[in-house]
């Protein structure tokens, strides 16, 4: 019997290569979401520059944020076919170009196109491929590894919005966009080039075990195709829950800083609240991801969604800056845990065969919540002079998401025909 050919295998490194992929995904999301969520740091400067209302400016983030997830199905399917490296790098290049063009804008509609479409397409073509690339490398520590990768979102949100706010004050919003463009290409582009979703090319199975190791579930390296997954009950329930929570997730990213300014905070102090969301989300991805691997991912998901609903009610009652700071950290913890758990549960239920397309489809409903939530909250404020009603509506939708999450079956006992 001839010896197995190894010419197609890529040499392995002393460290399990799955962690290299985790670091690469971290870098892509650090750059993409960090820059995307820094829009609040530009809010007041653009409001003055273009004499715009809050509802009008909120459309910029609504466009970009809806594309983060609205393009998930297309980018995930493209990554399944052509690999995450090419798709994610294309996203980082488009985002870089959009930021550079935004620096030259002379009218608000140009900001819509450059910062809205450019940043949105860039993140939309990099997020799902990056997270999807991590899933085939892990089974036992999948939630923890995914949490570390997605912690790039929290780290970017912690670092980049305060830096952007400082830049806007020091060199103006136009040159600040150019600095962010350069950083996106350097950090995000480099991370994209290191993505890899095929451990078998290195002679490995998930968790660093040799290929074809015993104990690796049948769906870990293969799994359901997209059509079979999309017809299933877990897919529908996760899509519904993710859609409902999206309103409560994205309204704070746009309106928490303006709400703080209304309470008397400085622009820099208000922008720092976004950094606190990022700090909380980093903790959430590590702590909640690790806890989910031990306590059960479905059970922890329910707790996280319930926590988000309760925190939005707390925001409604917050009348002082310190209360908004407490909300920002706790909200980040909940939000960080949620976005780490959903991709993990997708892989638990459906395997890695079509993980990009499945994740993209589950997250596609988020596009609607992001497209509608921040502008509707902004227009409600313009009309009512208060955020109470829009925040209350977001809390109610999150409560409904708890119901959908409770109805999810246990991934360990679920079968596609059961």
From TrEMBL:
<feature type="transmembrane region" description="Helical">
    <location>
        <begin position="354"/>
        <end position="381"/>
    </location>
</feature>
<dbReference type="InterPro" id="IPR050327">
    <property type="entry name" value="Proton-linked_MCT"/>
</dbReference>
<dbReference type="InterPro" id="IPR005828">
    <property type="entry name" value="MFS_sugar_transport-like"/>
</dbReference>
<keyword id="KW-1133">Transmembrane helix</keyword>
<dbReference type="InterPro" id="IPR036259">
    <property type="entry name" value="MFS_trans_sf"/>
</dbReference>
<keyword id="KW-0812">Transmembrane</keyword>
<dbReference type="InterPro" id="IPR020846">
    <property type="entry name" value="MFS_dom"/>
</dbReference>
<feature type="transmembrane region" description="Helical">
    <location>
        <begin position="143"/>
        <end position="171"/>
    </location>
</feature>
<dbReference type="Pfam" id="PF07690">
    <property type="entry name" value="MFS_1"/>
</dbReference>
<keyword id="KW-0472">Membrane</keyword>
<feature type="transmembrane region" description="Helical">
    <location>
        <begin position="111"/>
        <end position="131"/>
    </location>
</feature>
<feature type="transmembrane region" description="Helical">
    <location>
        <begin position="57"/>
        <end position="75"/>
    </location>
</feature>
<dbReference type="GO" id="GO:0016020">
    <property type="term" value="C:membrane"/>
</dbReference>
<dbReference type="Pfam" id="PF00083">
    <property type="entry name" value="Sugar_tr"/>
</dbReference>
<feature type="transmembrane region" description="Helical">
    <location>
        <begin position="324"/>
        <end position="342"/>
    </location>
</feature>
<dbReference type="GO" id="GO:0022857">
    <property type="term" value="F:transmembrane transporter activity"/>
</dbReference>
<feature type="transmembrane region" description="Helical">
    <location>
        <begin position="177"/>
        <end position="195"/>
    </location>
</feature>
<feature type="transmembrane region" description="Helical">
    <location>
        <begin position="300"/>
        <end position="318"/>
    </location>
</feature>
<feature type="domain" description="Major facilitator superfamily (MFS) profile">
    <location>
        <begin position="20"/>
        <end position="410"/>
    </location>
</feature>
<feature type="transmembrane region" description="Helical">
    <location>
        <begin position="387"/>
        <end position="406"/>
    </location>
</feature>
<feature type="transmembrane region" description="Helical">
    <location>
        <begin position="12"/>
        <end position="37"/>
    </location>
</feature>
<dbReference type="InterPro" id="IPR011701">
    <property type="entry name" value="MFS"/>
</dbReference>
<feature type="transmembrane region" description="Helical">
    <location>
        <begin position="237"/>
        <end position="257"/>
    </location>
</feature>
<feature type="transmembrane region" description="Helical">
    <location>
        <begin position="269"/>
        <end position="288"/>
    </location>
</feature>
<protein>
    <submittedName>
        <fullName>Cyanate permease</fullName>
    </submittedName>
</protein>
């Amino acid at each position: 019997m001839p010896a197995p050919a190894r010419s197609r295998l890529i040499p392995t490194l002393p460290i399990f290569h799955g962690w290299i992929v985790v670091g690469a995904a971290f870098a892509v999301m650090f750059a993409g979401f960090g820059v995307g969520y820094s829009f609040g740091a530009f809010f007041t400067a653009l409001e003055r520059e273009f004499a715009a209302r809050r509802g009008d400016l909120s459309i910029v983030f609504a466009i970009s944020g809806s594309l983060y997830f609205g393009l998930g199905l297309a980018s995930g399917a493209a990554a399944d076919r052509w690999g995450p490296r090419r798709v994610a790098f294309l996203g980082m290049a488009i985002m870089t170009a959009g930021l550079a063009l935004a620096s030259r804008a002379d009218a608000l509609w140009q900001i819509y196109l450059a910062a809205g479409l450019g940043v949105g397409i860039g993140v939309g073509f990099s997020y799902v491929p990056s997270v999807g690339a991590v899933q085939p490398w892990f089974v036992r520590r999948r939630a923890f590894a995914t949490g570390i990768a997605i912690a790039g979102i929290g780290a970017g949100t912690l670092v980049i919005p305060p830096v952007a706010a400082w830049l806007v004050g020091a060199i103006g919003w136009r040159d600040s966009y150019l600095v962010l463009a350069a950083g996106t290409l350097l950090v995000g582009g480099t991370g994209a080039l290191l993505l890899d979703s095929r451990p078998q090319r290195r002679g490995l199975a998930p968790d660093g075990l040799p290929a074809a190791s015993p104990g690796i579930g049948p769906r870990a390296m293969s799994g359901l195709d997209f059509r079979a997954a999309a017809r299933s009950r877990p897919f529908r329930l996760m899509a519904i829950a993710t859609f409902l929570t999206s309103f409560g997730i994205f309204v704070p990213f746009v309106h928490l800083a303006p709400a703080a300014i209304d309470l008397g905070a400085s622009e820099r102090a208000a922008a720092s609240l976004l950094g606190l969301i990022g700090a909380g989300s980093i903790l959430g991805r590590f702590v909640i991801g690790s806890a989910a691997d031990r306590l059960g991912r479905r059970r922890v998901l329910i707790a996280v969604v319930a926590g988000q609903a309760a925190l939005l009610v707390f925001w409604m009652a917050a009348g002082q800056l310190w209360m908004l700071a407490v909300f920002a950290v706790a909200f980040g913890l909940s939000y960080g845990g949620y976005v780490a758990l959903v991709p993990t549960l997708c892989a638990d239920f459906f395997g890695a065969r079509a993980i990009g397309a499945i994740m993209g489809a589950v997250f596609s409903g988020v596009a609607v919540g992001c497209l509608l939530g921040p502008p509707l909250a902004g227009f409600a404020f313009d009309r009512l002079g208060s955020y109470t009603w829009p925040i209350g509506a977001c809390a109610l939708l999150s409560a409904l998401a708890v119901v959908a999450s409770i109805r999810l079956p246990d991934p360990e006992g679920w079968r596609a025909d059961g």
